[in-house]
Amino acid sequence: MVPVPTSPQDIRIIPIARMAQGGRWRVEAMRSYSSDLLLWVTRGQGRITISGRTRGFGAHNAVFIPARTMHGFEMTASIFGTAAFFPTSLNLDLPKTPLHLRIRDVHPQAELTGILESLQREIGSDLADNDKAAYHHAGLFSVWLQRAQDRYKSDTETATRSADLVARYTDMVEGEFRSGRTVSDYARALGITPTHLSRVCNQVAGRSASSILKDRILYEARRLLSETRLPVNQVAAQLGFTSAAYFSRAFQNHTGKTPSAFRRSN
C-alpha cells in the first residue's frame, strides 16, 4: 500500500516573502529545517548560502535544500515565489544534496508552478482523499525535480576542494552547534588550522568560520526565545554556553537586545 501523509498539513506551501515574518533573521541567519525545502523564485533576486557556498539567485531559479542542511539567504523586498516544505517521512525519493537550477525554458517553469498550485489546492481542500491526492502531487514534484536536474545539470557548479571543505565544516556545525565547540575544535577535527578554515570560508561563503558558527547558534537562540518559554539560563545551557551572563552578552552584541528584551518584542 502506498504510504500517505497523516494529514494534508504535513506539506506546507507559503509565499517566500512570508518566511521573513517575525524578522529577517528568520531567513538571513544560518539555520536548517527538519523538512526538505524547495524555493521556487518567479521574480526578484538575492543571494543564498547553502552548506557554506554562496551564490546569487533570480527569477525562475529552483533551489532545493535537503532537510538539516545549513543555509541562509538575503532577498529583495520585491521577491515573489513559493516555498514548499516536504517532510522527510513522505519518502519522496528527493535528492540528498542541494540543487540550484536555473530553469530557462517556459514549459518546465509552467509545469512546476502548476504542480505546486495543484498541491496547494489539495492541501487546502475538504474533498475526500485530499491527503492522498496531495501525496501524489508531491510525487509528481519529485519526478519534475529529477528531470530538471538531468536537463540543467550542466548549469550546476562543480564542487572545488575548498567548497567541499566548507560543506564538511557546515555539516559538522549543523550537527554539533549546541556542544560549545569552537572554530579551533572544528578545524582540528577537519585536520586543518583555524586560519586556513576561515580563509576558505571567506573565499567560498563570503564570511569567516566564526561568523558561520555564531550565526547558527544565535539563530537557534532567537528561535528558542521567540517560540518557547524556556528560561534564559536554560536556553544558554542548551546552546553550549558556560553561563547565562556570557550568553546574554554575546546575544546583545549580535542583536542589540538582551535575550529578555528580544523575547518581549516577539
The tally of beta strands, per DSSP, is 8
Query: Compute the gyration radius: what is it?
Result: 20 Å
Structural class, by secondary structure, is alpha+beta
| N- to C-terminal distance | 44 Å
Please summarize what this structure is:
The protein is α+β, with helices and mostly antiparallel strands and 266 residues long. It is built from ten helices and eight strands.
Mind explaining what this structure looks like?
The chain has helices at residues 25-28, 106-123, 130-152, 161-176, 183-190, 194-205, 209-227, 232-238, 244-255, 259-264; strands at 12-15, 35-43, 46-50, 53-57, 61-65, 71-75, 80-87, 99-102. Helix content is 47%, strand content 17%. α2 (106-123) packs antiparallel against α3 (130-152), α4 runs parallel beside α7 and α8 packs across α9. With 266 residues, the chain is an alpha+beta fold. The strands form two sheets. Strands 1-7-2-5-8 form a five-stranded antiparallel β-sheet, covered by helices on one side. Strands 4-3-6 form a three-stranded antiparallel β-sheet.
Question: Which features characterize this protein?
Answer:
266 residues; alpha+beta; 5-stranded antiparallel sheet; 3-stranded antiparallel sheet; 10 helices; globular
Summarize the topology.
Elements lengths: L11 E4 L9 H4 L6 E9 L2 E5 L2 E5 L3 E5 L5 E5 L4 E8 L11 E4 L3 H18 L6 H23 L8 H16 L6 H8 L3 H12 L3 H19 L4 H7 L5 H12 L3 H6 L2
